[in-house]
């Protein structure tokens, strides 16, 4: 973790994300947005009538869904991105403390220690990754109808539709939380955050605790 001191009158900045992580996040966000918008156009009658060209919307939806795993797979060539995935996939004692505080609705920063990613972000990342794989699998069953029996296609359609609705709700919550934290958005946009924000929101990361990035 690097520290850059800005010009007088400005706060010191901490390096949070490298280019690979930021581009994977942006590209995945665009593809996910296309999937959500095209799904809405396919399932909401008013939007379907407004947009028209259902066949084109279906094809855009399908190819955007197929492309969803590509940014993450491409990002694996980056050592920094692989390290960020490691942090997302690792729970420590401080994460259990964070979760207990969240369940108690304890909003004091001192009661919610966090590494580079807090426990909520780790759970969200794991859930959205799993949901994406399920959507990809059920979508392929729905696309290649001649390869599977009718009961598989019916079940896949049911799971795909309801999981899509759930993903939309979860994404709305994710976006809402991001809108409420300009410094977190700055970190994903520029790769840097203020030292004060890092110490307040991700104290374990800033202290350089074992198994966290320094």
Can you offer a commentary on this structure?
70% of the residues lie in helices and 4% in strands. By secondary structure, the chain is mainly alpha-helical. Strands 1-2-3 form a 3-stranded antiparallel sheet. The longest helix has 30 residues. The radius of gyration is 20 Å and the shape is elongated.
Number of strands: 3
The oligomerization state is: single chain
Distance between the termini: 4 Å
Mean pLDDT: 87
- Principal-axis shape equals elongated
SS class = mainly alpha
Order of helices and strands: EEHHHHHHHHHEHH
Order of strands across the main sheet: 1-2-3
Contiguous helical run count? 11
Summarize this, please?
This protein has 214 residues and is mainly alpha-helical.
Secondary structure: elements and pairs:
Blueprint: E1 3-4, E2 13-15, H1 19-43, H2 45-51, H3 54-67, H4 70-75, H5 79-88, H6 93-103, H7 119-143, H8 150-179, H9 182-190, E3 192-194, H10 195-201, H11 203-207
Antiparallel strand pairs: 1-2, 2-3
């Amino acid at each position: 973790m690097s520290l850059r001191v800005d010009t007088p009158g400005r706060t010191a900045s901490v390096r949070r994300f490298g280019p690979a992580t930021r581009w994977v996040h942006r590209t995945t966000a665009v593809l996910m947005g296309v999937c959500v918008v095209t799904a809405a156009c396919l399932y909401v009658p008013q939007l379907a009538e407004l947009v028209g060209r259902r066949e084109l919307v279906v094809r855009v939806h399908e190819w955007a869904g197929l492309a969803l795993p590509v940014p993450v797979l491409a990002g694996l060539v980056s050592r920094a991105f692989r390290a960020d995935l490691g942090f997302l996939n690792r729970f420590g004692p401080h994460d259990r403390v964070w979760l207990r505080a969240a369940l108690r609705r304890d909003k004091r920063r001192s009661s919610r220690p966090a590494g580079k990613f807090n426990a909520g972000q780790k759970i969200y990342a794991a859930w959205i990754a799993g949901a994406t794989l399920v959507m990809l699998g059920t979508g392929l069953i729905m696309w290649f109808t001649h390869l599977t029996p009718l009961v598989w296609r019916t079940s896949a359609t049911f799971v795909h539709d309801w999981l899509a609705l759930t993903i939309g709700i979860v994404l709305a919550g994710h976006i809402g939380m991001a809108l409420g934290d300009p410094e977190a958005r700055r970190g994903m946009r520029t790769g840097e955050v203020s030292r004060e924000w890092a110490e307040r929101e991700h104290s374990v990361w800033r202290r350089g605790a074992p198994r966290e990035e320094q």
